Amino acid sequence: MKLSSLTAISPVDGRYYELTQSLRYIFSEFSFLKYRIQVEILWFKKIINLHKILKIEKVDNEDILFIDNILKNFSIKDAIYIKNIEKKTNHDVKSLEYFLKYKISKSKTLSLISELIHFSCTSEDINNIAYALMMKDSIKKVILPLWSEIIIFLKKFSMQYKKNPLLSMTHGQPATPSTVGKEFLNFYYRIQRQFSKLKKIEILAKFNGTTGNYNAHLAAYPDINWHMISREFITSLNLSWNPCTTQIEPHDYIAEIFGCISLFNTILIDFNRDIWGYISLNYFKQISIDHEIGSSVMPHKINPIDFENSEGNLGLSNALMNHMINKLPISRWQRDLSDSTVLRNIGMALSYSIVAYHSVLSGVKKLEINNSQLLNNLNKNWSILSEAIQTVMRRYNIKNSYEKLKKLTRGKEINKSDIYNFISRLNIPETEKKRLKEITPVNYIGYAVKIVEEITK
User: Matching PANTHER family, A to Z (predicted)?
Assistant: First the structure.
């Protein structure tokens, strides 16, 4: 069976193909090969630039251009060539070395120094930098832009609906009102924190040989400061240098990144569930799209499928990332291979997140606030003002304030007249009675509007 979006096993390469293709340029097998070729070439060029202290022939600009074009023109045909070598060698990184040696054999000058390709490197010197570059590109080019879209929407809704009162539900029961904008702001503030945190996480890489001590480097050139050269090489790639490792970079930074993304996703799951609930309460309507169908048998339905899809995919993504958080920082002694197959699934973990982000963005664009339902629910629940009344009573030292309001309201249907009559009988100043009677379920929103205005400045 020929592989296509219809025959792929994973939905991220099948059903959700169009949503995840941005990651295909980073985490596909072809892209992984290309990132590693890039690292090999950059290290080869770094060695060439050290020609004076290494006492090798200087390479002219024409040959440097030849090397650069290997990466620039890297193609599917080249990738297949490498994979065919790997079938014989059963070693992926060695196959890259042989491929590059084959390529530069066409240059007389470069062929003379072909043994300097992959010089003093262990496979993980190449792989860890490739993964670091992949993580950097995925965060910068894919994840943060999508997070930014979600944040912009939440901020927009916070400001747009900052004055629209909403009956809060604590423990699923009517509670002190808020506003629609303030409830969106709660998620905006939480998500914005993770956005800022993710941007600050250092992406680390190492380049120090088989057990992290430059043994082979010093065997060949004992008088060269390879520690300094390693730092120069890593930082030239806009990565943070890890100076102290075993054979592998310990992946702590990946765990930190996934911890941040996983928390972002958990917050978004919370958002999805809240919006799902608000739609169920009819606080929000979903804009009807004529050609869409909600149910195969119930024509009236407009299901909140975008939020459900988002929730499900966030859960899958978090399950994979949480395994990686627990697995990747662990390696037996100086190195074992159990991290390798896990690392190859980074793209899969992020793909489920990407699908979820697109789904939630699709869902929120269909939301339409239902003010009449919001106001109707508020006006049915005058008992929520018992909080305000008993608190004012406490101010005036009226004994058993809480208990008196409990007797009036708990488990009973209370209307405006009941509340007004209770206030009228209170032994408090008339000005306070008047002020209490001006409080309604609709305007009892505290600082909700001010908090929105302050946070969204």
Answer: ADENYLOSUCCINATE LYASE
Co-location of 77 and 184 in the same domain: no
Q: Quick one: pLDDT at residue 14?
A: 85
Q: What are phi and psi of 453, to 5 degrees?
A: -65, -40
Task: Find the catalytic residue in 75, 148, 288, 295.
Answer: 295
171 is catalytic: yes
278 to each of 159, 274, 361, 434, how far by Cα in Å?
18, 6, 17, 34
As given in the structure block, the two tokens for residue 138 are 């995925």
Q: What are phi and psi of 28, to 5 degrees?
A: -70, 165
Do 162 and 309 lie in a common domain?
Answer: yes
pTM of the model: 0.94
Q: Of 394, 374, 390, which Cα lies nearest the Cα of 445? A: 374
Assess contact for 375 and 445: CB atoms under 8 A: no
Ranges in the chain, pLDDT < 70: 288-302
The upper half-sphere exposure of residue 453, i.e. CA atoms within 13 Å in the direction of its Cβ, equals: 5
Residues 92, 37: contact at Cβ < 8 Å? no
What is the distance of C-alpha 367 from the center of its chain? 23
Mind giving me the DSSP string for 329-390? Answer: T--STT--THHHHHHTTHHHHHHHHHHHHHHHHHHHTTEEE-HHHHHHHHHT-GGGGHHHHH
| Token code pair at residue 342 | 């896990």
Taking only Cα atoms into account, the Rg of the chain, rounded to an integer number of angstroms, comes to 31
- Which amino acid is it at 90? N
- Look at residue 8 and tell me if it is in a domain: no
Q: What phi and psi, each to the nearest 5 degrees, are found at residue 369?
A: -65, 140
Q: Is 157:369 a contact under the CB 8 Å cutoff?
A: no
Query: Which one, of 27, 28, 21, 30, lies nearest residue 354 by Cα?
Result: 21
Asked if 165 and 230 sit in the same domain, the reply is: yes
pLDDT in tens, 147-173: 999 999 999 999 999 999 999 999 999
What Cα–Cα distance (Å) separates residue 229 from each residue in 110, 133, 151, 224, 235? 22, 19, 41, 9, 10
- Structural domain that includes position 428: 382-440
